[in-house]
Automatic annotation (TrEMBL):
Lineage: Bacteria, Pseudomonadati, Pseudomonadota, Gammaproteobacteria, Moraxellales
Pfam families: Molybdop_Fe4S4, Molybdopterin, Molydop_binding
Keyword tags: Iron, Iron-sulfur, Metal-binding
Residues of the 4Fe-4S Mo/W bis-MGD-type domain: 2-61
Family classification: Belongs to the prokaryotic molybdopterin-containing oxidoreductase family.
Species this chain originates from: Agitococcus lubricus
Designated name of the protein: Anaerobic selenocysteine-containing dehydrogenase
Length: 781
């Protein structure tokens, strides 16, 4: 008999509601998934899903997915018991710590971590247990500049302004392609439907992108902008806003400090001055500024393409500044802060340490700054390869594939191969995890419960939904959270007393499970049980956690802060008795209302005002000014490289799903006809794309949609490496864009990888170069 299960798809940020039908299989076969469809009754996504949702089934059924611990031996990979795996991991890591010190153990956390309830909760304790400066995550190849801007301007790294797409009249979008990505730092079911709604209401959408993307093709107006020049465009827009429009200065100064300083900072950036560098006529910039200022409700929104570039840090700041000076920050139809059911901002806002940190220390080799206890992943390889005190000798990865996802992937590949010891907590044997000595694979997503702790902070409406486990995991498997907790307990225990203590803590947490903690967080949140008081179960969970925390000395900062959270007064909001039980009784999820202005209560800066002109940005903007004329194209084979996402991919890890990868090769280099003609290459011809760090060879795809001098290549391919177990992906290997991105090309403020706007040289593969290249490959083999 067919059974329907309702849940949230966790593959991207959009949080679509899905209905998964299962049937009892034949004897011994277990339960079969028969379909994955959009859930019409999910109040957030209203039936919308994308092609990737099928991966919820294919991932579950993928014979290549690992289920039991694996050890790399001279005879290949061997399955071992969990006991042996945990013992060997503990010994391996502790041996490196004993020999080389704490910082010799690195930790890299990948993107799927935050799409997983248990991992979101239990990666931080494992990170803390390692006491190493060498912590990295996908944040520094992604949204770090936006988080830094939030910390600098609003006082909390998670106070991220979300475009109020459902109510705006004018959306100015830079460096985002929601038609492929389904929206980022803008979580919304059917995000393209919502964006099209702006136009249907008579509003405007303007997309600035070096490629006329699927988004730009479907909605609004498109303007080409030269890669990595957004800083100039944004500064010029502000320049016009200050000089030529009437700003409501009194209102701005009610909300923000530093208006005059901001005005001074953009003084030199006239539209005429930036026209060449951006490729946008001065009149167009000027008109956009006037139109934006005139719009009743407008929002400037920028994402990946804008923040992962050389001036990504300043650009993230300028985007917020534009929203502030036009009166659109914290306004319906502008950029708003949301108020999620698990309010991680509210829960942590009283603790400076939990609000975020920047540049408290620097990386050993290159001196790049720390952010939130992490270093930019652009330094990972050099920290492994450069000898000396503090060199990384062992690495743990959780749900990450830095070989394909971080700059100069070849160097990362080499670096991982040189480690004394490596552990990967991952579901696949892939380009990164093949270097591990031990792989600890967790259960699949349908085998555990799910709640989006992170993406609800980024959602365009306040919603709340819990997905219960749908399938029973096979015997003798472990969830991510169990693996992480086990390791945290072991790494925290360095003597008999600590061991005893951590065994106790582990038992308590095992009793609570992620669901128990979630229940507590929901009840403590703005829609929670309070002031009715916690339910008896949650009250008991709270007591248990306090008991566990009491075991720490009073000087232990994190324990003290957590205890504070548990005894915190209820957060303001509409008490609605929200609890896990209530979510279970509403399997399609609950709508908790539209975003509302709330900055006055939520802002965490000392004066409770927005800081409009933080010092670190002013200096960086001056540096940008000095480089106004730097990027002049001199030869037809010089290009600026940008990235590209496809609706049927997800970073590096969904290429092993046949329904998603089949069809035309997507790993191509897009350029326009004029550029192709100048190079004398035709559709499908192979070209070599070269940067300082390496080169890749791939076919050309000639499209009308590229700006002249720009080449676009997707990331996440390059599945040809020896020793992986990705039978389908290997058949569509492609090449890795990150084999040519440059680890030294980073955002000048934060060290975030500048994955977009890199200068590359393109060489057509003539018969002669092809022969030379294949000879080189022979030599390598
Ligand atoms: N299908 C799919 N969905 C995904 C993902 C995926 O891999 N596949 N990944 C998920 C993740 S982890 C994230 S972070 C989000 C990202 O979501 P988005 O930020 O929407 O990411 P992209 O689709 O990469 O869009 C970036 C755009 O920036 C443009 N661009 C490049 N350089 C520049 C520049 O210098 N200036 C300007 N103005 N534009 C530039 C590119 O052409 C591209 O259109 O997507 C998420 N969703
Ligand atoms: N050139 C270029 N590079 C980019 C980008 C770009 O636009 N251009 N985008 C960047 C962005 S936005 C991001 S977020 C990063 C992503 O960078 P990463 O997170 O390092 O890479 P992913 O490809 O997402 O790899 C995810 C890994 O998690 C594993 N995994 C999947 N689900 C689970 C799970 O439930 N548990 C565990 N333990 N493991 C799991 C997968 O097998 C895979 O190994 O890539 C970045 N790299
Ligand atoms: S857009 Fe696609 S991948 Fe993203 S949550 Fe929805 S169904 Fe899943
Ligand atoms: Mo990302």
């Amino acid at each position: 008999m067919s059974q329907a299960h309702y849940r949230t798809c966790n593959l991207c940020e959009a949080m679509c509601g899905v209905v998964i039908h299962t049937e009892e299989g034949l004897e011994g076969e277990g339960v079969r998934i028969t379909s994955v469809k959009g859930d019409q009754n999910d109040p957030f996504s209203r039936g919308h899903i994308c092609a990737k949702a099928i991966a919820l089934k294919t991932l579950q059924e993928d014979p290549d997915r690992l289920r039991y611990p694996m050890k790399r031996t001279t005879d290949g990979w061997q399955e071992i018991s969990w006991q042996q795996a945990f013992d060997e991991v503990e010994q391996g890591i502790k041996a490196v710590q004993a020999k080389y010190g704490r910082h010799a153990v690195g930790f890299y956390v990948g993107n799927p971590t935050v799409h997983n309830l248990g991992a979101t909760l239990f990666v931080p304790p494992l990170m803390a247990a390692l006491h190493s400066k060498n912590k990295f995550s996908a944040t520094s190849v992604d949204q770090l500049p936006h988080m830094l801007a939030a910390l600098q301007m609003f006082g909390h790294q998670l106070l991220l302004p979300i475009p109020d797409v459902d109510n705006t009249d004018f959306m100015l979008m830079l460096g985002a392609n929601p038609a492929a990505s389904n929206g980022s730092l803008m979580t919304g079911g059917d995000i393209m439907g919502r964006i099209k709604g702006i136009q249907q209401r008579g509003g405007r959408v303007v997309v600035l992108d070096p490629r006329r993307t699927e988004t730009a093709q479907q909605v609004g107006e498109h303007i080409f902008i030269k890669p990595a020049s957004d800083v100039y465009f944004l500064a010029a827009l502000l320049h016009v806003l200050f000089k030529e429009t009437t700003l409501n200065k009194a209102a701005i100064e009610q909300q923000a400090l530093g208006l005059e300083m901001l005005e001074l900072a953009v003084e030199s950036f006239s539209p005429e001055r930036v026209a060449t560098v951006t490729g946008i006529e001065a009149a167009v910039i000027r008109q956009l500024a006037h139109d934006f200022a005139k719009a009743e409700r407008a929002v400037c929104y920028g994402r990946m393409g804008v923040c992962t570039q050389e001036f990504g840090g300043v650009s993230a700041w300028l985007i917020n500044a534009i929203n502030v000076v036009t009166g659109n920050l914290d306004k319906v139809g502008g950029a708003l802060f949301n108020h999620p059911a698990v309010d991680l901002v509210g829960l942590t806002s009283s603790s400076p340490a939990l609000r975020g940190s920047f540049n408290r220390y620097q990386s050993r080799v290159r001196g790049l700054p720390e952010f939130n206890g992490e270093l930019p992943v652009a330094v990972l390889a050099e920290e492994i390869l450069t000898e000396g005190k503090g060199q990384i000798k062992a690495l743990i990865t959780h749900a990450g594939n830095p070989v394909l996802s971080t700059p100069n992937g070849q160097q990362v590949d080499q670096a991982l191969a040189s480690l004394d010891f490596m552990v990967a907590i991952d579901i696949y044997l892939n380009e990164t995890t093949r270097h591990a000595h031990i792989i600890l694979p967790p259960t699949g997503v349908l085998e555990h419960g799910h709640y989006d702790l992170v993406f609800n902070i980024l959602a365009v409406r306040n919603v709340s939904k819990y997905s219960p486990p749908l399938l029973t995991p096979p015997d003798n498997t472990r969830h991510d959270w169990q693996i992480l907790l086990e390791l945290a307990a072991r790494f925290n225990a360095n003597n008999a007393k600590e061991k005893w203590l951590w065994q106790g803590i582990k038992r308590i947490v095992e009793r609570l499970q992620p669901e128990g903690i979630l229940d507590l967080l929901l009840q403590l949140g703005p829609y929670g049980q309070l002031p009715l008081g916690l339910t008896p179960v949650a009250a008991q969970s709270s007591q248990l956690l306090i008991k566990a925390l009491n075991a720490f000395p009073p000087t232990h900062g994190v324990a003290r802060q957590l205890k504070q959270l548990l005894t915190a007064t209820p957060l303001n909001g509409k008490a609605q008795g929200l609890s896990l039980a209530k979510l279970k009784a509403n399997p399609h999820g609950l709508d908790l209302g539209a975003l509302q202005p709330s900055l006055a209560e939520r802002i965490c800066t000392p004066d409770r005002k927005v800081i409009l002109a933080p010092h670190l940005y002013l200096a960086e903007l001056s540096r940008a000014f000095t480089q106004l004329n730097a990027h002049q194209r001199r030869e037809p084979n010089q290009f600026l490289l940008i990235g590209r996402r496809h609706i049927r991919s997800n970073n590096s890890w969904l290429h092993n799903s046949l329904p998603l990868i089949k069809g035309k090769n997507r790993c191509t280099a897009m350029m326009n006809q004029a550029d192709a003609s100048a190079l004398a290459v035709n559709e499908g011809d192979m070209i070599r794309v070269k940067s300082r760090v390496g080169d890749i060879t791939l076919p050309v795809e000639i499209v009308d949609d590229m700006m002249t001098g720009v080449i676009s290549i997707p990331h996440g391919f390059g599945h040809h490496r020896q020793g992986t177990q990705l039978s389908i992906a290997e058949g569509k290997a492609g090449v890795s864009m990150n084999d040519i991105t440059d680890e030294h090309y980073v955002d000048g403020i934060s060290g975030t990888a500048a994955l977009n706007g890199l200068a590359v040289t393109v060489l057509p593969m003539t018969a002669k170069t092809k022969a030379k290249k294949s000879k080189q490959i022979d030599v390598l083999n």
